[in-house]
Amino acid sequence: MIVLGVETSCDDTSIAVVSDNKLLNCTTASQFAAHCTYGGVVPEIASREHLQQISDVYCSALEKSGVNPSDIDCFSATCGPGLMGSLLVGVQFTRGLSLRYCRPFIPVNHLEGHIFSAFINNTPPPLPWLILLVSGGHTMLIRCDSFFSYQVLGNTIDDSVGECFDKVARFLGMGYPGGPLIEKSAYSGSDCVRFPDVLLSGSEIRFSYSGLKTAVLNYSRKNSAPLENICFSFQRAAIMPLVKAVRESLKIFSPAALILAGGVSANSLLRELCAETAQEHGIRFCVPEKQWSMDNAAMIAAAAFFRQTKNCCGRDDFRIDPALKII
Ligand code: KG4
Ligand code: ZN
User: Fold this and answer.
1) 24-44 residue pLDDT tens
2) From the CA of 283, how far away is ligand 2's center (Å)?
3) Which terminus of the chain is more solvent-facing, meaning fewer CB atoms within 10 Å of its CB: N or C?
4) What is the pLDDT of residue 41?
């Protein structure tokens, strides 16, 4: 089965083709140059860029994958969460194709796409799964007992971990996106300060990253520690509580696999600690290759492929939803 996936929820125009979950091609046009002078994504610019790029990206993805449009069995696109204007471009473009070629259209939740990024070119592990989903918009622990059915075990009450990386990097004058830049700097740093714990106490798993951001800003205003040391201490304060929360969840729930996904899953410290934790508990560990951690269409096509093969794509009532939830 050949599936085309389209991802335009934020600032990348990305189109992928998979054949039986084997990735044939993923072509992405980055909007980095259009947004970088603003220090973040400007929604109006993003939707305009998607409009300009999407046809070329589509032609290029088809050509590189060696597939004719009439060979495609179903078309899929991210329908949320994300920026309204950007989502609209991708969904309407893809629905147009599905009508033109009389094939089904499968709307994909971007968060589910991230989860399935761990299974691009791979067979999913046995259920149930404990999922740590960490991106620019989300910080969640999710339980999955059966395909496409999710229960949120933990969440952030304010900023997401990725957002915190981005805001701290911006304040420190490092650029955007902050995660990879902070990770790189932390690599040559050492510990300089203990920042407050972002995992709140109580019976529920709740994170608060906004306090950590403020603590880093205050510390760097009052101290002249080297940048790499601030990055080291910040990265540890941002990452360790995620691992602690995974460990807490594993005390009350025995999954067959731990899945780490979302843009922050590219972080090496987080990957290593999650791998270690899974190994200690004797469960499988699945994480996307680093190139599929950040937003991309391969994960959307992979999620659509599994929805289609498991007969779970009848979503006639779907709508584009910038605030779409995972449950
Ligand atoms: O999943 P994603 O591409 O977009 C959203 O759906 O939000 O995640 C982007 C986020 C950004 O906040 C970026 O700073 C973060 O992922 N990120 C990282 C790393 N690479 C990307 N955070 C920490 N360490 C990294 N290596
Ligand atoms: Zn994402």
Assistant:
1) 999 999 998 888 888 778 999
2) 25
3) C
4) 86
DSSP, collapsed to helix, strand or coil, labels residue 291 as helix
Going from the Cα of 136 to the center of ligand 1, the distance in angstroms, rounded, reads 5
- State the average pLDDT over residues 147-172: 96
- Indicate if the alpha-carbon torsion angle 108, 112, 114, 115 is positive or negative: negative
Measure Cα distances from 263 to 27, 220, 258, 273, 319 in Å: 18, 26, 16, 16, 25
User: Is the Cβ atom of 113 under 6 angstroms away from ligand 1?
Assistant: no
Predicted confidence band at 109 (pLDDT cuts at 50, 70, 90)? very high
- Strands in 12-19's sheet, in edge-to-edge order, are 22-30, 12-19, 2-7, 74-80, 105-109
Cβ–ligand 1 distance for 294 under 6 Å, the answer yes
70 C-alpha to center of ligand 1: Å? 35
The alpha helices in the chain, defined as continuous H runs, are 32-35, 43-65, 84-100, 110-117, 161-171, 178-187, 210-222, 227-252, 268-280, 297-309
Angle at which helices 84-100 and 43-65 cross, to 10° = 30
- 257 in Cβ contact with 125 (< 8 Å): yes
How far is ligand 2, taken at its centre, from the CA of residue 111, in Å? 7
- Cα separation, 132 vs 149, in Å, equals 15
SS3 32: helix
With tokens 């309407």, the residue in question is 92
| 164 CB near ligand 1 (under 6 Å) | no
Residue 305's pLDDT is what?
A: 97
The reply to whether ligand 1 has any atom less than 6 angstroms from the CB of 178 is yes
Q: Which atom of ligand 1 is nearest to the CA of 161?
A: 12
Q: Got the DSSP string for 205-248?
A: EEE--HHHHHHHHHHHHH----HHHHHHHHHHHHHHHHHHHHHH
Indicate whether residue 76 lines ligand 1 (CB < 6 A).
no
Per residue in 281-315, pLDDT (tens digit) is 999 999 999 999 999 999 999 999 999 998 887 66
For residue 152, what are the CA distances in angstroms to 22, 109, 121, 227, 265? 29, 15, 27, 36, 18
